[in-house]
Amino acid sequence: MRFVRRINFSTVMLVLGLLFLYLPMVVLVVYSFNESKLVTVWSGFSTKWYGELFRDQQILSAVWTSLKIAFFAASMAVCLGTVAAFVMTRYGHFRGKTALSSMVTAPLVMPEVITGLSLLLLFVQMAQITGWPADRGMATIWIAHTTFCSAYVAVVVAARLREVDRSIEEAAMDLGSPPLKTFFFITLPIISPALAAGWLLAFTLSLDDLVIASFVSGPGANTLPMVVFSSVRLGVSPKINALATLIILVVSLATLLAWFFMRRSETKRKLAVKQGDTA
């Protein structure tokens, strides 16, 4: 009876939600070790599809292309998003602030089809006027991904900046620290967890994007989602299950490491504050 009483509506919904999110991933991981070519028919345990995956040069090339684009897009998005967040939160009311905030956050609500089509038209017009880009490829995908990833980074960093105690920055500047030095030595370490979260979010969004990349890519640049989508339309291969399993493993490890380092940094910061208060 006591066990039955502990089972309430919230617990049941939590379990159902977790099953809905993670049960398909578990099934996918299990069937990545299926020996059969049919992904829905289990015929025995085998790791041969992982070997087939690492021998597929098209998929490996697409993985490397997607990782490079995601890394550079996330890095640039953190730079641009941090500047935009700083302007939106630290500057007072100025003419055009509402328009700037709306334009920065527009990619959050803009359909990806519209974003991809508008960027395609922009690149076509630029090629006709200036001659660049002559061919759409990694550079155009990088610019497109940076455009919409910057909005997500700006929202994350702006939320963190609003919570920062500005008296610490003011105290540093009162002691003679220039604003730029105060930003790099005081503000930046405080908002570093938000920067890491924004970078990971931008990296994931860039790595996962299919619609925008399909508009702005050319014959010489195929990202991983584009290759997977084209192969799935011809029939799901067990190599895709193996690839998805490896991606889940890598993302899980990266998330765990990021959580560990951010938690350790936060613990050190709280300990330093506590020691300062004690002294």
TrEMBL record:
It is found in: Cell membrane. Keywords: Cell membrane, Membrane, Transmembrane, Transmembrane helix, Transport. The keyword Iron-sulfur does not apply. The chain crosses the membrane at residues 12-33, 69-87, 108-127, 139-161, 182-202, 240-261. Gene3D superfamilies: MetI-like. It is a multi-pass membrane protein. Residues 63-258 form the ABC transmembrane type-1 domain. It comes from the Bacteria. InterPro entries: Bact_Polyamine_Transport, MetI-like, MetI-like_sf. CDD domains: TM_PBP2. Belongs to the binding-protein-dependent transport system permease family. CysTW subfamily. This is ABC transporter permease subunit. It comes from Halomonas casei.
